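ZP: hey, is the adenosine monophosphate complex queued? I don't see it on the tracker
AM: it wasn't, my bad. submitting now with these inputs:
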Amino acid sequence: MATQSVLETFVDHCGRAPDKTGVHFEGEDYSYARLLALARQAAGALAAHGVEAGDRVALFLGNSVDFLAAYLGIHLAGGIVVPVNTLYRQVELRHILSDSGAAVCVTDAALRPSLDALRGDLKELRHILEAPLLSEQPASPLRLPDGDEIALIGYTSGTTGRSKGAMLRHRNVLANIASVCQAWRWTDRDHLLLTLPLFHVHGLLVGFHGTLFAGAGCELHRAFSAATVFDRLNSGAFSMFFGVPTMYVRLLDEQRRRNLTPPPLRLYVSGSAALSQDTFAAFEAQFGQRILERYGMTETVMNLTNPYDGERRPGAVGQPFPGQEAHIVDVATRAPLGSERDGEIEVRGGHVFAGYWQRPDATTEAFTSDGWFKTGDLGRVSAEGYFSINGRASELIITGGYNVYPREIEDVIARFPGVREVAVIGLPDAEFGEQVAAAIAADPGTSPDEVIAFCREQLAAFKKPKRIVLVDALPRNAMQKVQKHLVRTLFET
Ligand code: MLC
Ligand code: AMP
């Protein structure tokens, strides 16, 4: 029978090369066999706490071997992983945990208090487990998931301000990573420097899954630090590095400060946000390497990639991965368009998710009748078949590779005493690509700093406005709709 999950390829590698180092973390090597043993212990602990097939298990944990063991353990126990960004605060946590109906949340002692504070609101949450304790349980028997089972629910920004859970099946993530490994020539000889957060698809379903699928190795860091990453790149120990554009901007600064060029890597990849042509060119000049830019999203993992062997075009995101399809359609008529015409990108293939968790309306809305997924990203395709992205159908802001939906911030700011109305937009930012900015009409004496502090309390820190302008009233059209293009001009002084 065909392979059903990435877990199955991982277990196969454990049989063939049990002693090979899969993960290096904080000075310690974890062999494939040891990772599997930790995962089986985690599965045993979850089963002992009543986790059964189909149960949602939230993972609210920073990058660590505990995270990896819990992630694999949830799958071995038949559960569905709900990864949660560790920067999330009350508003986001309450929504994700209650919407997913998570029965168990795996966390650690440092993050636990934010969850304890919400306990009363989360009726379905039976247990909060601290990750290191999971390894104290006897191992579970080995049960591998079927390809049709849901592997994870990734929460992604929703147009109403409430994020939606994208359900990815085991076979979706397996199909995608097989295509990614083929396109990028990822083999068991590769060693990846992995500093992306594991709670989003870039770090988890590309970085970690690719390592397991290829039978390769990675060095996992708790977080990205330009100085540390530069040192590690300089050690010559790696063949690959994946980052969001902000990481490349910071590595370029680091290179200028040190005036030293690390030895070449087989592959540098950028994604999750647009890589500017300036950053691409500066990296080629300063590091002597052409970054491979690719495009993905939570619902589909990886969609488009610049070629490994052919020309890597600055400002373009390349072509569909092997076995996947993409085209541009007219936004109004949904008719496919030829090259050099602007429209919306649609994608189709085995990598595309199964739909939004308990949102049949949103799922129907997201697909065409012949199975294309409407990405909401606007772009065009060149005569040579290179796609490029030039906008978004929605107001989504992407800052440092994290998504921020204006409505969510507007809802929080609107609750601040004295605020009459508010509009949130994204402004260009040299380091983060875009920055969150808010125009607020409020009673005299309203303090922007207090509004920012209020946002920080309720939401992840990267969502707080970096700029606030106080106005008498927001620009509205005759229908009383806020005109966001005019809000933009309020920041031009
Ligand atoms: C941190 N800050 C941010 C921010 N990250 N502000 C805006 N956008 C961000 N992304 C804030 C902090 O709260 C802090 O403010 C100040 O900026 C400086 O923080 P820092 O310590 O310099 O930030 P750091 O921790 O170094 O984080 C920067 C980063 C991180 C780029 C390393 O944001 C990151 O890991 N981004 C990766 C996101 C990612 O993996 N996305 C993939 C999604 S999957 P203050 O006031 O608190 O001091 C996806 C699909 C696909 O999109 O295609 O891959
Ligand atoms: P997420 O919802 O976090 O999965 O974010 C997915 C979104 O990130 C996509 O819909 C795109 O808008 C954006 N994105 C990902 N990769 C790129 C890229 N290379 N260039 C521009 N935007 C990107």
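AM: back. The pocket of malonyl-coenzyme A (ligand 1) is lined by residues 196-197, 200-203, 223-224, 244, 246-247, 271-272, 296-297, 399-402, 432, 461-462 (CB under 6 Å).
ZP: great, adding it to the tracker
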